[in-house]
Amino acid sequence: MKSGTLTLEAMPNRRTFLKSSLAATIATGAASFANAQTQETGNAPETKAPTPRKGRIRQSVSRWCYKDIPLDQLCQASAEMGLKGVDLLEVSEWDTPRKYGLICTMGYGGGGTIPDALNRLENHDAIEAAFRKNIPLAAKAGVPNVITFSGNRRGTSDEEGAKNCVIGLNRLKKIAEDNGVNICMELLNSKHDHHDYMCDHTAWGVGVVSQVNSPRIKLLYDIYHMQIMEGDLIDTIRANIQWLGHFHTGGVPGRHELDNTQEVQWDGVMRAIADLNFPGYVAHEFVPSRDPLTSLRQAVDLCDV
């Protein structure tokens, strides 16, 4: 790798978060935001009128990328930017965005972990029990999607893993259908961030969910991850939109801001999604390397096509 780039071990993901200068940058941004918004009385500030948006892309933000900003402050800032929700919240956090006119657009609900999930039969009972409990709660809280994963291969063939995922999702689909909540299995790259992860190509994921053939069983198409694994983003999205329930963003390389240092033309990808009349959400899942809320607003502006 060239000097100054992240090593594979240091690349940011949900399991390993940058701990030095980036964390300090985020903390500084959070403090600046809090200081600017707090009234002299010490009361929580009132939310400003949201920035008007075109509405062709319903945007959200992934919580873990802004972990040093209190959730209430992130929700307030997101509402003011014209976002529709906050992604990847725990069950106990699902009601918080509603105080700001937002929703949790994608929730954790017990769908396994990235390495241990649906491609192994021994995980199915626990995932089903968790979803039986939490998907009705998601419906009550207005959470449209819950996340699940394939799991890592660990020597299992793609064919056997796909068969097992179909079995597991067939057990879950009625729960999702009865409650009007989508279960989304995430596409992740196995090249840099999640070595050995099975659902690492769109064709494999579509093969699974198309066999389940439920309007509530979808893929979470992570644009960052699929650019690394496949490229050909727009044509792939167009060809498979009926199986895609949610999108994530993240700059390639590095998973940072959606700016001119990145190889994806984000406004072009967003126009393609918007032209398909996609009814779901696009959640920003990049790790800011500058002032976090400024970076988020710039991404929201770019994707408001």
Give an overview of the whole structure:
The structure is a single chain. The protein has helices at 21-37, 71-81, 124-141, 158-179, 202-212, 223-229, 233-240, 266-275, 292-303, and strands spanning 58-62, 85-89, 103-107, 145-148, 182-186, 217-222, 244-249, 281-284. With 305 residues, the protein is an alpha/beta fold. It has one domain: Alpha-Beta Barrel (TIM Barrel), CATH 3.20.20.150. An eight-stranded parallel sheet has the order 3-2-1-8-7-6-5-4. Helix 3 (124-141) runs parallel beside helix 4 (158-179), helix 4 (158-179) crosses helix 5 and helix 7 (233-240) packs parallel to helix 8 (266-275). The model is unreliable at 1-11 and 16-44 (pLDDT under 50).
The number of helical segments is 9
- The CATH architecture term is Alpha-Beta Barrel
Contiguous low-pLDDT stretches (5 residues minimum) are 1-11, 16-44
Strand and helix order: HEHEEHEHEHEHHEHEH
Note the main attributes of this structure.
single chain, disordered N terminus, TIM Barrel, 305 residues, alpha/beta, 9 helices, 8 strands
What are the SSEs and their pairings?
Layout: H1 21-37, E1 58-62, H2 71-81, E2 85-89, E3 103-107, H3 124-141, E4 145-148, H4 158-179, E5 182-186, H5 202-212, E6 217-222, H6 223-229, H7 233-240, E7 244-249, H8 266-275, E8 281-284, H9 292-303
Helix pairs in contact: 3-4, 4-5, 7-8
